[in-house]
Amino acid sequence: MKKIGREPKLSLKEKRQRSILMGLIEHYIKTGKPVGSNTLKETGFKSLSSATIRNYFTDLESEGLLHQQHTSGGRFPTEKAFRIYIEHHLDSSELPEDFKEKSAPLTSFASKEIASYLPQAAAAVSDATGLAAFFSSPRFDHDFLNEIKLIPVGPERVAALMITDFGVVKMELIALEKKLSSFSIKRIEEYFHFRLHSMDQKPENLSEEEEEVAHRIYNELMVRFVIGHSAFQAEDLIRTGFAKLLSHQDFKDPEQVAASLSLFENSHAMRLILRDSFKRDALRFWIGEDLLPFSAVNPQCSVITIPYHINLQPVGAIGVMGPVRLPYKKLLGALKAASAMISKTLTDAIYKYKITYRQPDAGLPVLFNDKIELNMSKAPILLEDKTFQTP
């Protein structure tokens, strides 16, 4: 990816050449068709002759910015040209016409279930841009288990679904000594509810054997939940909307779709891309071959990322993936607006509900009150409850 920076000063000829390149890309973005000199002349360059425009085309082609499939045909912008186009419009604040309506979920959230907000935000960004969206997220604290459900996955295993106050769902596989009946599972789930909500009345009809099994599973899940929440190596990753890419005219080639999907499903690559934006605290973009460090083949797509903040501190990043031919001016404006909305919503929730968060391997959580401080006043968490002892 080319480093983002200020554009160099251009000569008069270079400025005209750049203007022609921008005009050609604008027309190509709208139509998806090769652009000829006569077409470009009629769409904003009437003061130039077709021959002069063709001369500029030749210069731009020699610089690797345009290519021509047929000698008598029009020109297409190259990946290199799109990089220049994006850099030229980095300050764009244009928005898609329906952005306000589709981005409403970004600002309408008002709940302590803060972890459920980011998946909603990712879906809203995907809807507002018509692209696949992926987010990185810190780990939010003050989240407690609210419910545990058991689903049999074999004669001696169950999948435990742990649902938190913030709406996060985690799954753990638990080995059993023997198969549990559906009635036993229901009574064990009632026991979990009794333990999670500190109820006075223990579930009725729970046999001694079932209580022993329930107690063992409960303790095992508590240990896994606490360890998994406090010690994690990578940012949480949220992905949605890849199917939207199939509606794009330029996203019909099966090999291109497969390569892009492979990249989108590569969690490690997605985290590295988002981390680049988060660490630099800057908007970043990758076009086509720029993505080869993350993909075995050129996915022939584009990726743009931008960080979001809590109390002005970068805590994660927003990314979108789409074809190379995109309305970048409106897309850049939409991503900047979305980042600002998400940052404000998260900061407001952090203050209102006194929620802490942590980054991977960052150790102690961060709490925002009137100033940034380390939240070190937490009571120790009991990893194993030994109130129930078998004889």
TrEMBL record:
SUPFAM superfamilies: GAF domain-like, Winged helix' DNA-binding domain. Keywords: Repressor, Stress response, Transcription, Transcription regulation. Pfam families: HrcA. Residues 118-330 form the Heat-inducible transcription repressor HrcA C-terminal domain. One of its GO terms (biological process) is negative regulation of DNA-templated transcription. InterPro entries: GAF-like_dom_sf, HrcA, HrcA_C, WH-like_DNA-bd_sf, WH_DNA-bd_sf, WHTH_transcript_rep_HrcA_IDD. GO terms for molecular function: DNA binding. Signal peptide: none annotated. Belongs to the HrcA family. Negative regulator of class I heat shock genes (grpE-dnaK-dnaJ and groELS operons). Prevents heat-shock induction of these operons. HAMAP family: HrcA (MF_00081). This is Heat-inducible transcription repressor HrcA. It comes from Estrella lausannensis.
